[in-house]
Design goal:
The chain has 585 residues and is mostly beta strands. Helix content is 2%, strand content 52%. The relative contact order is 0.10.
Length: 585
Amino acid sequence: MKTLNANFKLILGVIVMLMMVLTSCNPNESVDMPEVPEGASGNSQIDFGSNIQRDFMGRIVDQSSIPLDNVNITIGNKTAITDNNGMFVINDVSVKERLGFITAQKPGYLKGMRSVVPTTGTNMINIMLVAETLVSTVASGISSEVTLSNGAKVSFDGAFKDENGNAYSGNVDVYMYHLETSNPAIEAIMPGNLQAENANGEERVLVSYGMLNVELKGASGEKLNIADGSVAQIELPINPAQNGVAPATIPLWHFDEVSGVWMEDGEATLVGGKYQGEVSHFSWWNWDAPFPAVILCINAVDANNNPLANLDIKLIESNAVNGRTAFTNGDGNICGFVPINEAFTLKAFDPCGVEVFSSNIGSFSADTNYSLVLPSVTATVISGTLVNCANTNVTNGYASIIYGNQLASVPVTNGDFTLSVIQCAALTSFSLEGVDYDTFQETDTISYDFGSADVGNIIACNAVSEYITLQVDNDPVDYFLSNITADSWSSTSVSIGGQNDIGESILISGSATTLGTHPDNGSSYIGIELNSLNIDHGVPNTLASTITNFGTVGQYIDITITGSYTDNNGVVKSLSAAIHVLRDN
């Protein structure tokens, strides 16, 4: 779906706050891994609860928000691979009640790792992968320093080992990445979800002062680490906004790649605007202040109690440099860890980035379900059906909506999909795309107007660049895929034709070419010629056409037609048509 890739480049890779959803957009079924033993949690002593089954869907992007394909995704005992839109889906996977751990790996990038508190419905996951950057090459047996441009530094004593624990001699490539707290994508990049375990085995949630990733490789690309009995000194500059509030000493934490949580491991001291500490191995390291944690679940609805899916929520703690950002799932829910007895400012934004809600909430002394009602907005539910080239419902795929600054995706259920959005005041049209995993086919990007919440059928068949669909009442949808013509001989007329699979021809004409909705009345005209419709043209109808695209020659014309007509037997019938054709004249 090349158009989706281009559009998504313009959309900021979604940052994760409390929870996100994974669905594996793997063209194949997700692969079962060997069962993980019950209660397995790496080195952590935290009780993550019982095993539960949950569904996940997600997108993997690079630092320019370009989707990444062929990324290996693992969650629980199942795996998947992202498609060319960076999407993946993994359904019915065993996770813990308080922890779902997702990893994303692709050669040339740092390993992406996300931890979430799983909810019912489809959990949406978005991860931004960071490209590996070779910063310096040092020699074993010699003390050396490697420094980034912002002042982050690592000092080595020269002793290294390979993955088998054997002493290594030779050149060492040093890859470093400093994730600063001012980075707006910090929560899309960072491992975990700031859930942690302190030195006493107690569960905590962290407030970060910065993170550092260091990877060491030998001359043949083999993984290396600091030799047993040796340490390296690391220095990390703090964000200037944290001057005056940063403590003199702070715990060090490393990320445990088995349990999916941060583990307390040493201490750092603030010296001259930098935290300095010693570490005995390399992975992700974090300078964080720990706080007792509770789970906060937010359920967002509009004034009519309709769930607000894909709602952009920001939760800002006191003394925080940046708020924590996430999007609600299809049921309007999101869950995650927050510091106990802490007050927050909760803000919500529409897909165009306009703030639509702000309120102070908290503090919370126990796990809490918080009901968020946004009285000033109304959810618009976009529904439709994704079909394949054979005109049958897609059973393994997804649909995506592109609207404002947002790209949201949902898996289809026997072809059907629903996407909930808040409509921006100044943006009346949206675009849809769909993917069929079983056939490796996808749709074009199709524009629609909010005047019709049911878009009907969209066709995942990239060999089909043009189509006309038509449905009467609840009859099967009729597809016109061949001999399509689209002509506009003047600025106020259009004529579109095509044939279906049994050779029946349709001709649709209209007296409007401007964007917007045009009823069939004295000022505009809609004509549909198809023998099987049996239209009585002497009786007024309620048909209206909505034009969302009317390109020049070689570009697309997108029109939907909805309403009712009376046939020659006096029976009133409903009609809906979708037109996605290339203009010929």
